[in-house]
Amino acid sequence: MPPSKISEVFEVLKKQNSSPITELNYRSDFTLLVAIVLSAQATDVSVNKATEKLFMVAATPKAILKLGEDGLKQYIKTIGLYNSKAKNIIRLCESLIERHNGKVPDNYEQLRELAGVGSKTANVFLNCYYKVPIIAVDTHVFRVANRLGLCKTKNADETEKKLNKIIPEKYRLYAHHWLILHGRYICTARKPKCRECVIREYCKSLCKSW
After folding, report:
1. Residues designated as active site
2. 105, 133, 134, 199: which could form a disulfide with 110 (CB 3.0–4.6 Å)?
3. Which of 61, 49, 60, 56 is nearest to 24 (CA)?
4. pTM
């Protein structure tokens, strides 16, 4: 897609929602990081239902460690992959206390060293909490970017590199959110709502005829 068209796409999305924010509920940098870890292969709605109760009793690394892995599972058992997520969150809390005095690091490299924190999680955290203009790629972003024709990539890593290269800097702060929201509510995996799509004219996908 030509640079001029890319700018047009994001101008249209910007008009729909000028300053989008994450739909995950959180109280602090730590609770946001935990919520993002929990959101992998799960909906924000399911995560928010679980963390509403969890964060009332444990909203710090020490408090979650006090719950223990089994205790934590009782709060997040409605979320997919809760067993492995509970284990990772416990390890994450241990790392935060041992290496960072219980505080969440504010840089990509240190975040990536934490258990359960991959590239996407680190980028989402930095974008949402510290307003770093970087694009994280989840299934929604991957799907929308490829359907739309912003890129032609095979995986999230390729997509992340491509989008951070071609999307103008002035749109990068919110691009992640615009693409996620568009994928979540309009350009869905099954039965995309093409007739309601505000950027349909730019789309290169065959789903325009759906």
Report:
1. 120, 138
2. 105
3. 49
4. 0.91
CA–CA distance, 9 with 12 (Å, rounded to integer): 5
**Integer angstrom CA distances of residue 19 from 126, 137, 171, 175, 190:** 16, 19, 11, 10, 27
Task: Give the Cα separation of 113 and 126 in Å (integer).
Answer: 15
What residue has token string 């869905």?
A: 188
**What Cα–Cα distance (Å) separates residue 88 from each residue in 80, 172, 204?**
14, 29, 39
Domains and CATH numbers, the chain: 3-20+134-209 (1.10.1670.10), 29-130 (1.10.340.30)
Token pair of 52 as six digits:
């509403």
- Residue 180 has which token pair? 């996620």
Q: What is the DSSP letter of 195?
A: G
In whole angstroms, give the CA distance from residue 182 to residue 14: 12
Task: Express each pLDDT in 7-50 by its tens digit.
Answer: 999 999 999 999 999 999 999 999 999 999 999 889 999 999 99
What is the C-alpha radius of gyration for the chain, rounded to an integer number of angstroms?
A: 18
